[in-house]
């Protein structure tokens, strides 16, 4: 049995990524701290992974550029329009489950 072509798999992964990003853009009511507390990653993590992949492929990209790809707008603009103050309970959960670096 021959090994399947990697291209279709990459296309499926890219389509899933685009759908995830579109979903997160639509659900700006879901705060990053909620995502971190429930799933262990947030929009910023996703943008960091994107930037790391781009840089590893030799494509220069900074944090603001990768965040704009994920947020669909400059990060500070998204924050001013959508980010709410985290509650004490949200902050406590985050501190308890904070990723170890």
TrEMBL record:
Residues 82-94 have a biased composition (Polar residues). Residues 82-101 are annotated as: Disordered. Residues 30-96 form the SMc04008-like domain. It holds the Pfam family DUF1244. Gene3D superfamilies: SMc04008-like (1.10.3340.10). Coiled coil: none annotated. This is SMc04008-like domain-containing protein. It comes from Pararhizobium capsulatum DSM 1112. The lineage of its organism: Bacteria, Pseudomonadati, Pseudomonadota, Alphaproteobacteria, Hyphomicrobiales.
């Amino acid at each position: 049995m021959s090994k399947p072509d990697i291209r279709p798999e990459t296309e499926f992964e890219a389509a899933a990524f685009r759908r995830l990003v579109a979903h997160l853009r639509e659900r700006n009511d879901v705060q990053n701290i909620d995502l971190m507390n429930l799933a262990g990653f947030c929009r910023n993590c996703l943008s960091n992974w994107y930037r790391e992949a781009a840089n590893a492929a030799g494509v220069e990209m900074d944090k603001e550029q990768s965040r704009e790809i994920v947020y669909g707008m400059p990060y500070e603009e998204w924050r001013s329009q959508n980010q709410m103050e985290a509650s004490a309970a949200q902050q406590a959960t985050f501190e308890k489950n904070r990723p170890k670096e």
